[in-house]
Amino acid sequence: IQLRLNPGGNAANVLNINGSFRAEDRMTFGAGTFNLNGSYTGGYGGTYFTGAALNVTGFVNVGTSGTVSFGAGTYNIAQGLYLPGSATTTFGTGTFNIGRGTTACSGGLYSICANSSGGTTFGAGSTFNLSAGVRAGGGATVALGSGSGNTYNIGTSSDGYAFRGDGGSKTSLGDSSGAIRFAGHVNLTGGGSCLVVGTAGQHDIRGNLWGTGAMKLGAGVYTITGSVNFGGSGGGNTTCGGSNIGVYADNVTFVIGATGTLATSGVCAGRSFCLAAGYSSVLINASNGGSTAGFAVIGPTVTSNNAGGNFTSGATNTAINGVFPRGIIPVPGGVLI
User: pTM of the prediction?
Assistant: First the structure.
């Protein structure tokens, strides 16, 4: 049974639905504002939403299959957005205010839990206010905006991440005219994963920037309260942003505080910046403007913090420059810098 709500309505219409809603087949929402006092779960036939706003006091689960299309608009979802199964989901340009989910996403509670093999795309120039971060499950593809004019305020999941990408996941963020803010760790936890972050004047990471996959990082300053660690837990190069890379960051400066949790074991233990074996193609070009011009990496400047850098054997084809005023940088045999 296919269900249509307000199919012949107009943008001025407001529909209030009291209670959770679960579709079994194709679900179509017409024009207007929809207020749902409960949760929404899509059916196998997909969901088509063309309204101006969707306000949900519970969660939204798009369903496990079919084509899911949400148009441009404002989305206020109190208890998380779930993207499971093989559904292919698209959102138009919009404002996405999404709270913490109440169902675990492979462990933690996140604002966006993306496990769909079908892929998820949010329109260019969108605003993301995500109080509990994003998790891209193994093999998932997620595009959080594209092009210019995006806004990102990404909070922390229950397990400490603003973003976590599992093995084989592909995630991208567009450019922002303001700051791109991550209020927790940014971490690729599985091999073959990819994270592309757009250009912004400032990228704030309140935590660590760690990877076992590849990262392509857009221009700007990256202020990281924790540490930067690529390959300390394995992993390495993969196809990311159209090229086979380990890390590619042009016109950037990493300002690393190395406070909080550093790696406690392995080759990156105690280091503020680490490139380990497997990362065979790393390019970090220094910022060419502003107060950090000429520095790609600035390590801890606090007198009591001597967490230096480390390049382990196998970290080849690496181009980087920077300063670690308090810590040492060992360069073993086999490293080509």
Answer: 0.91
